[in-house]
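Support case: flavin mononucleotide complex. Customer-provided input:
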Amino acid sequence: MILMKQLDFTVHSNDRLNDQNHLLKVAPLNNMRLPEMHPGQFVQVRVDNAPHTFLRRPISINYADTQKNEIWLLVQAVGEGTRKICEMAVGAKLNLIFPLGNAFTIPSAPGNFLLVGGGVGTAPLLFLGNKLHEKGFACDFLLGGASEKNILQRPDFEQYGTLYCTTEDGSLGEKGYVTHHSLLQRKRYDFIFTCGPKPMMVAIARYAHEKGVGCEVSLENLMACGFGACLCCVEKTTRGNVCACTEGPIFNINELTWLD
Amino acid sequence: MARLEVTIGGLQLRNPVMTASGTFGYGTEYTDFMDLNRLGGMIVKGTTLEPRQGNDYPRMAETPSGMLNAVGLQNKGVDYFVEHLYPVIKEYDTHIIVNVSGSTVEDYVACTEKLAGLEKIPAIELNISCPNVKEGGMAFGTTCASAARVTHAVRQVYPGTLIVKLSPNVTDIAEIARSVEAEGADAVSLVNTFLGMAIDVERRKPKLSTVTGGLSGPCIKPIAVRMVWQVYHAVGIPVIGMGGICNWQDAIEFILAGATAIQVGTCNFVDPAVTVKIVRGIREYMERHGIASVSELVGGMELF
Ligand SMILES: Cc1cc2nc3c(=O)[nH]c(=O)nc-3n(C[C@H](O)[C@H](O)[C@H](O)COP(=O)(O)OP(=O)(O)OC[C@H]3O[C@@H](n4cnc5c(N)ncnc54)[C@H](O)[C@@H]3O)c2cc1C
Ligand SMILES: Cc1cc2nc3c(=O)[nH]c(=O)nc-3n(C[C@H](O)[C@H](O)[C@H](O)COP(=O)(O)O)c2cc1C
Ligand code: FES
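Agent response - structure generated as follows:
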């Protein structure tokens, strides 16, 4: 079992990807080696100097760069907490609790794997694609957003697999939602991983269920602690109410009650 | 050398810093972040006679300097606690106190009886103040008669240290404190959460599945300090203070208002090692002010 840690980090870089999204690369202040992390896990960021942000903010591990000893955080500014994180200057300090949560199940044998992301929900899929690629497994990414500028980190994704996109305005890839992409009709998959807005994940889960394909989803339930102490983040499952922060955020759709 | 030991009923705490029920799980959730043996005591999650699934999601809404929760006493029941959790946590070298919750007097009594024989549970905290369950819970803590009734019944079957946790959702908390003292409570702890609510204005919907929930965190601290001060002057038994404590200054403030010991709740979520820092801060404060024993500070606020 990996120990959770509370550590101060420093911002190595902060790149603005579009008007709402930033990519921060952060490293432990004391040069401590980062522990092993797994795709699907997340960090809890303490947001300082933000009067309306008392609790930490959960952010997925976008990528763990073991060579540079950095964690990547892809953050979308939706409120005060995430806006403050996006505004952090290079060299600024931030306190993280990590690594939190379970992880996507890495398949044991090659196959056709599809990773579907919507909006900033693409964040954990980059790290997952990286791990699948390291194992020599090919995968397809299907990413959706409002417009071309919302499909983030395209060159990074292309390193690890084939990239397909949908945009609501048709500026990149097929026009519409990811669930309408022609790929889903053309190709048969062995397993699907998805993260994004709940309606999108429900639609993907339904598709997977109808096709008899296994599927894991990444939940974004509201969290107070992130490490199993408060019982605020529960998701209703076939096993009863379970914490999305410790027994999730990754769930197999068969455990959830979404399709009932 | 500053002495941090304090006495609550039959308990000798190594320091006055404890963790509040429902915010600290069973302690095991925090062992990666801190050494539990440095705590004065640990109050574990609200435990009921039967297992409870708790309320539906969403159960949490952040509010300025605090949060609303509507967890609703989700727990696996006292039998599960005795069989599976107690054997693990009894190894910790700190006082483990179980928060006993229920819907009827009989529930409280039956739950307490199952805990009474456990060697490493030297005290219980009777939760007559949970705002998140439909029946019972807080209702017991809102009138003197019902608070006295449940305290009396539990006292009959419980020889250990009996702490009664009071609800702040009352007109006169001092009066309730007096009524449980009269029935043999060894200490009172306060405050539980304040009944509150929040509305999502875009969707015109409540932010909690239960509409109302319990408010905690720094936003409640001034009210909690006032209540501790009032109760301190109303009873002769020790008062355990809590409500928004996030650092040693907050802790000292409660002690000066009359708390013999304090509990840290919501702030554990933001800094899971905060209790250890509070213990250190209290010690440094005492050394700086030349105070030999923390008990000298209890109720030590000077009026002008
Ligand atoms: C496990 C997990 C991983 C996440 N990963 C990422 C990530 O990699 N990048 C990223 O940008 N965001 C991620 N999020 C979402 C992020 O935590 C929220 O957007 C953030 O907490 C909002 O805080 P705020 O102060 O900016 O907004 P607030 O002012 O608190 O809220 C603004 C709006 O965001 C909504 N919101 C608040 N909290 C959440 C939440 N937990 N999930 C969804 N919506 C929320 C509110 O309902 C409100 O409409 C993740 C959430 C979870 C639970
Ligand atoms: C998520 C959560 C769950 C709680 N569960 C319980 C409980 O089971 N029993 C109880 O007596 N108090 C419970 N409380 C109340 C706390 O123990 C404490 O009285 C209150 O939160 C005020 O302290 P704070 O502001 O430091 O959190 C809970 C509080 C929170 C935030
Ligand atoms: S967020 Fe606290 S238990 Fe999951």
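Chain A has a mean pLDDT of 95.

Case will auto-close in a few days if no follow-up is received.
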